[in-house]
Design a protein that fits this description.
Length: 250
């Protein structure tokens, strides 16, 4: 009788063992399904899409910086100092998007064209509108017709030369990321145009500076993309110090 009782008491535990084993099998099956989903063509396409558009997402910040320069003329609370900060933020993202495209190896003609149009927004059209507004606020309503005309003409010249320079850049490099500039780039011109407009509005020398920068943007002179400080190639950006250290190692 004792063996029979022991056998009877042990038998009800057997289904629970099989039940737990079934749970482990289900959990293991769900983990395998998750791995299969990640390795599926749809999962790979999603990851590739995200990685491919990381440089474009950075470029959108450059566009926003230009937008901030434009709306500063009509939206209260956006100070000139904030516009200067937005300009330098656009400069940083303009460098980062190209670097991200090189590191991730996702360079494309669309990305290069998008980058050029973002430069036009942030460093061409935005600074021109910001400059004209700053000059008008500084001169006031009692300014002479001559000074108002000079302000409008110089601001239009900056915008027109920016558009001309970007258009020429797209044609010369055929949609690829340029390794040199024809004339000074718009992002270099805005480094002088935006801070000068924020700090010295109403100065008689400010329109002269804007006209000079406009002419330098359209001059037919090749300027290295690294501005003689960096060496830019299709795959890397190296400074002069890095080049010297690599030469010593060789």
């Amino acid at each position: 009788r004792l063996p029979a009782l022991i056998g009877r008491s042990a038998r009800p535990d057997l289904p629970s063992v099989h039940k737990h084993a079934g749970v482990h099998q289900e959990l293991g099956g769900s983990a395998e399904m998750a791995d299969d989903d990640e390795d599926s063509p749809t999962g790979r396409e999603t990851r590739n899409f995200i990685i491919r558009n990381i440089p474009n997402a950075i470029t959108f910040v450059t566009v926003f910086s230009g937008f901030l320069l434009m709306v500063s003329t009509s939206v209260p609370g956006i100070s000139p100092n904030m516009c200067v900060f937005a300009t330098f933020l656009g400069l940083c993202t303009d460098i980062l998007d190209g670097q991200a495209a090189r590191v991730l190896r996702v360079k494309s003609k669309f990305g290069a064209t998008f980058d050029q149009l973002a430069d036009l927004t942030c460093f061409g059209i935005g600074p021109a509108i910001f400059y004209v507004r700053q000059q008008q606020l500084a001169m006031g309503n009692d300014a002479s017709v001559m000074m108002q005309a000079i302000t409008v003409v110089s601001g239009y010249a900056y915008m027109a030369c920016s558009v001309f320079r970007i258009s020429r850049e797209l044609v010369v490099h055929r949609g690829d990321r340029p390794l040199y500039f024809v004339g000074i780039p718009t992002n270099l011109a805005c480094v002088f145009a935006v801070p000068a407009s924020a700090l010295c509005p109403g100065s008689p020398l400010l329109p002269v500076l804007i006209i000079i920068l406009s002419g330098m943007m359209v001059m037919p002179y090749h300027v290295p993309k690294g501005l003689w400080i960096f060496t830019v190639t299709d795959t890397s950006v190296a400074s002069a110090c890095q080049r010297r250290s690599s030469d010593k190692k060789e």
